[in-house]
Design brief:
This protein is α/β, with parallel strands linked by helices. 50% of the residues lie in helices and 12% in strands. The chain contains 18 helices and 10 strands. α7 packs across α18. It is globular and about 75 Å long.
Length: 506
């Protein structure tokens, strides 16, 4: 046991660095998954899942993350205990993964309880990233069940899974990847039961004031299964971004002051005006019945980077036909990227194809063509549901700011985007708080402008109204600081950024 008072003891991993996969090994995982886009191509569900786990474990060894695997049939086993994955252990782990062979029935609830136990952090509750991959219905659990809150009958001999997964003090990111249509028993995941579980977890998190995120995604092809499994464990950096929590205070102040100039001078930063209309909309909310808003990772309009010249891992698997386009782009093979994009466009959402056409042509120096394709992407984005549109519009605004060499707007959008991205799986309540603060910050442009207009209205009253708005946001900011009990560094960085912007807007 480590000495608790030792100053040399390493800091415990953050929740996103503690991952547990709960993998279905029931007999139905031997069935094949189709690949409609590739004639005759299909693989067993377990074969696709094994390949995804290889990739996840390999990446964990590079970033020093802790990873564990729980498998289940009618029996639950800890295949890989939660521990830091080291490169020298990969051959052994790959051998273990190769021996994961399906048989029997499905004790899903019991397996989730064991997964939560691996992530249990003493009195601090369950902390980390828990991912369930299943194609079935629970038909073999003997220890736990998901109880219906409306059921007034006395509890049976099984424990209630929901409080076991989410005790007080927890910070849990929980994602379910369901294989199949979810509509008929023995032909796919039990979507009704999975959504009921997520609804109860959300309600409990709200009741206890817990940080966490809960999502459900159904997949019906092998490539979708692979992409969603990798997506659940691997993050992709944003191009040219600097982490909020790693910036020196002087750098943070300089960036925030630049962003404030974009707010104070709307006539010189037209992208901000367009962006603010979308940011004023309600933040992303859970989809009814726990579903996923995005049917495919291809819906993402990601801003990808290649740190040190090395492309992010498994682009092809994660982004499907878009992955080969991004690979060529990151290698600065712009001709090749355009050729691949032309082939991939029929398989991509229109907004995604137009965005990448604009981005590649801008990299080639074809500014007029790039602007035309970016306008097409803006028009397509307007047709999207709000839940998808807000994220995508930020990406379009970032590209437009770069095309116009508008560094102030670029900085502002990057900070908003990074905050949203880093908190996506950590704390939905804090994400809503910060969304509100950023929206209010954007709205200050209007009251600030009135204080600078001479001969129009009562300038003294305009100044008072503007100062009152600044003070109101400052009060909300201080309340948010008090609520950030987890000490999330990204939140602190975002709040510092907003506070400096407020000072500049006085």
């Amino acid at each position: 046991m480590e000495d608790a008072e030792s100053t040399d003891a390493p800091a415990p991993p953050t929740p996103h660095e503690r991952h547990v996969l709960v993998l279905d090994l029931s007999k139905s995982m031997l069935a094949p998954l189709p690949e409609p886009e590739i004639l005759g191509a299909e693989k067993q569900k377990i074969e696709v899942a094994r390949t995804a786990v290889y990739r996840i474990v390999e990446n964990s060894s590079k970033v020093g993350a802790s990873f564990g695997i729980v498998t289940f049939t009618e029996t639950v086993r800890i295949a890989v205990p939660l521990s830091e994955i080291r490169a020298e252990n990969l051959p052994y782990l790959e051998s273990l993964i190769a021996m994961l062979n399906p048989s029997g029935r499905s004790a899903i609830w019991d397996a989730l309880a064991v997964g939560a136990d691996l992530l249990r952090s003493g009195p601090g509750g369950v902390r980390g990233n828990l991912v369930l991959v299943t194609d079935g219905w629970d038909n073999a659990s003997t220890r736990y069940e998901v109880r219906d809150p409306a059921d007034t009958r006395p509890p049976g001999t099984k424990g209630d899974l929901v409080p076991h997964l989410l005790p007080p003090g927890s910070e849990l990111s929980f994602r379910i990847i369901g294989i199949g249509s979810g509509q008929e028993r023995d032909k796919g995941v039990d979507s009704v039961a999975m959504n009921r579980l997520l609804d109860q977890l959300r309600a409990r998190a709200t009741e206890l004031g817990l940080a966490g995120g809960f999502a459900y995604q159904e997949v019906v092809t092998g490539s979708q299964l692979f992409a969603q499994m990798v997506h659940a464990f691997l993050d992709v950096d944003y191009e040219g971004s600097q982490s909020l929590d790693q910036l020196h205070p002087e750098e943070l102040a300089r960036h925030a002051a630049g962003a404030a100039r974009a707010l104070k001078e709307p006539q010189q930063h037209v992208v901000v005006t367009r962006l603010s209309d979308h940011l004023s909309a309600a933040p992303s909310a859970p989809v009814p019945n726990g579903g996923s808003a995005a049917a495919s990772p291809l819906m993402e309009v990601d801003v990808l980077s290649a740190p040190g010249g090395v492309a992010p891992a498994y682009l092809r698997e994660r982004y499907g036909p878009l992955g080969v386009v991004i690979e060529a782009y990151l290698q600065q093979d712009y001709d090749g990227a355009l050729a691949r994009l032309a082939k991939a466009k029929p398989l991509l959402p229109t907004v995604t194809g137009s965005y990448w056409e604009a981005r590649i042509r801008f990299a080639r120096g074809e500014v007029v063509d790039a602007a035309r394709h970016l306008l097409e992407a803006w028009n397509e984005a307007e047709k999207l549901p709000p839940d998808n549109r807000i994220r995508i519009v930020r990406r379009l605004a970032l590209l437009q700011a770069r095309m116009q060499n508008d560094k102030e707007t670029e900085t502002l959008v990057q900070f908003i985007d990074e905050t949203d991205h880093k908190l996506a799986r950590a704390d939905p309540a804090m994400k809503v708080r910060l969304h509100d603060l950023f929206s209010r910050l954007m709205e200050l442009r209007g009251t600030y402008r009135l204080t600078r207009l001479e001969g129009e209205g009562d300038s003294a009253k305009a100044a008072q109204d503007h100062e009152a708005a600044v003070e109101s946001i400052f009060g909300l900011l201080q309340d948010t600081r008090l609520e950030n009990t987890s000490g999330e560094a990204t939140v602190d960085g975002a709040l510092d950024f907003i506070e400096i912007c407020l000072a500049e807007m006085r």
